[in-house]
Amino acid sequence: MQKLIGSALLGALLVGCGPSTGPTPPGTPNPGTPTFSVSGQVLLPGAGAASLTAAEQEALWALPHVPGEVLVRDAGTGELGAQGLSVLSGVTLQAVPGTDLSRAATPAGEDDAAFAGRLAAAGLDVQPNLIYRPLAVPNDPGFPDNAGLAVPGRPYLYDQDYLTRIRALEGWNRLEALGKPKSSVLTAVLDTGVDRSHPELAGRLRPGRDFCSRLVNDTCQGTDDDPAEVTAGDVGHGTSSAGIIAANTNNGQGIAALTWGGTVLPVKVFGTDGRISGATSASLTAGLNYAVAQGARVINLSLGFAGEVGRPAQADPAIRSALQAAAGADVVVVAAAGNTPDQGLYYPASDPNVLAVGAIGRGDSLACYSARPLAGQKALDLVAPGGNAGTGTGNCYVTSDYDILTLTTVALGRYTLRAGTSEAAPQVSGAASLLRGAFPALTAAQVRQALTAGARQAEGGRILNVEGAIAQAERLAATPPTNRTYNLVVEARRGGSVVARKTFTGTLATNQRTIPYTLNGLAAGSYTLTARVTLTNPGETVTGTRGVQVSGNLSGVNIQTQR
């Protein structure tokens, strides 16, 4: 604010001393040129969409739309007035169920846009019936309905049918419809490390750290800066978790990830010498603390320890303290519930600060291997497809053609099928990362709430539903907190230069989602209006732009913002 006032005073001094020798910004009116004002509302996220100008309405008709009809709002309510009813006389109307819209058939020989113009002139709210296409169908062969992916040693081509079951595509499309990119936040994967040479993880990994650089008597010792997963033996566990969350998506190869290629922080807490072993309270606690310190907003733990048969796993005090610190830092922590059905939820999944994720098999019931809570333990927070394994057979712990298609190390063939709650948990972590990227103002508790409230209830529990979680997050984000002060800056730009700028400050009333503005002194011409709102409680910044053609004083020019 001080810089702005100082600039204004400097400008006043220059005018008082004579003309400036600097260039005049494009659009600056010459003395004697008539100027006009533009006013309206800046719409905060959740306030609804800005109404279209006449020019924007006209541009709609250049988009693909259903020929031979227009959409009329409230055409059957009896509130159209005599002129509206008259212009619709003889027009075939068909109500659209579940909406306040009707489809009006364009009279023979009349252009759709011209017909709409005639209806609009009579005071009707009309628009084209635009044609939409799927917005986010990845071209990766592993995505459902694409070509399928070969897996070494397997007879068929496989796909990621689990993405269909958790409604990932519908969730991505909902984000697109909200004008939000499929962005995500930094997600830490505490596991066996990650194969950095895997092409599906190129550009997706932070440097990370290894808290188990050597094994001594099968326990972790030492640290270094290389969290790479070894390529010998049947490992690939950490690479699998990272791939489900953040594999490069829509790149024409491999698999699609929940975040379309987010950023993973690999944190190696296991030793791998051809098998997985060695993780300790020390290595896991250090890994948790490191992930929080590096700014991870989601942590995936496809690991845990079981209690004795029939007894719940007890809390690890060191890990419990680290999880409490992560919760205090507003981090979403997700853990696999475990792969034995009779030993209760593994720890740390059973911790109250963690989302415990079980696995469903080929159907909507729990897979035979998935952990179930014992008496005194919390319920599973969510379940997700984890592969069928031997569910429905006499041997639960076998592989199946209905397991999860995922990544493995390059040395093991890049792609494989896996089963376990270890494959279910990263789906939830990926969805959490997607929510935090799209709705950054939500707290970790609100993200957990959105994931669980948006889930689909079935026999196996609350099944992850990406679309439902996004809808819940949208609702939570649209509920404004109280006592929010704002600082709004509105600018009019022309030719890349700022022609007019004004700052507005105040406090939002409860449920207020709009802020009025007025810009004065604009000469006739085309401008781009920009709005930048800085809000408190919680702190966030939203921005929006809108083009406008000025030829007189304009009102009702609303600017839609987004995070």
UniProtKB/TrEMBL annotation:
Query: Which keywords does UniProt give here?
Result: Hydrolase, Protease, Serine protease, Signal
Any idea where the Peptidase S8/S53 domain is?
Answer: 184-467
- Spell out the PROSITE patterns in the cross-references: PROKAR_LIPOPROTEIN (PS51257), SUBTILASE (PS51892), SUBTILASE_ASP (PS00136), SUBTILASE_SER (PS00138)
- Phylogenetic classification of the source organism: Bacteria, Thermotogati, Deinococcota, Deinococci, Deinococcales
Report the family membership. Belongs to the peptidase S8 family.
Active-site residues are 191 (charge relay system), 237 (charge relay system), 422 (charge relay system)
The domain of life for this entry's organism is Bacteria
Pfam families named among the record's database cross-references: Peptidase_S8 (PF00082)
InterPro entries for the chain: Peptidase_S8/S53_dom (IPR000209), Peptidase_S8/S53_dom_sf (IPR036852), Peptidase_S8_Asp-AS (IPR023827), Peptidase_S8_Ser-AS (IPR023828), Peptidase_S8_subtilisin-like (IPR050131), Peptidase_S8_subtilisin-rel (IPR015500)
Name the SUPFAM superfamilies on file: Subtilisin-like
Cleavable signal peptide: 1-22
Report the protein name in the record.
Answer: S8 family serine peptidase
